[in-house]
Amino acid sequence: MRPDLRLTSMTIGTSRPLGLARFYAGLLGWRVTEAEEPVPGDPVRGGWAQVKPPEGVAGFTLNFEYELHYRPPVWPSVPGAQNATQHLDIHVPDLAAGVEWAVACGAVLAEFQPQQDVRVMIDPDGHPFCLFL
């Protein structure tokens, strides 16, 4: 019999956990709920942070974990370069307003856009994410 399994969170590797947590908290209107600062002089313990939706709002937790050898993915993928192994999809009722808000929060509109009703954005540490209608 299958045990009770529930998806509760997603962890994203980054070179700057707290900065990226603050970016997504601002973008989504969520809150940074946990943060561990980097340990000075320790290249492995570079910190982590956690973002959750506001109380009473459904959603899962985003964790941001320091990766010593983090390389930003290339979008779209190219042979031999780091590819994005996952990305966040974020629904918006107005695509233009969503892009404008994401840019104001620190994202960049990706040069390559494969679909009419989706906008690929790049977060401040190089991860692609999609805004969609």
UniProtKB/TrEMBL annotation:
Its protein name is VOC family protein
Give residue ranges for domain Glyoxalase-like.
Answer: 10-132
Which Gene3D superfamilies does this one have? Answer: 2,3-Dihydroxybiphenyl 1,2-Dioxygenase, domain 1
Question: Mind telling me which residue stretches traverse the membrane in this protein?
Answer: none
Q: Which Pfam families match?
A: Glyoxalase_6
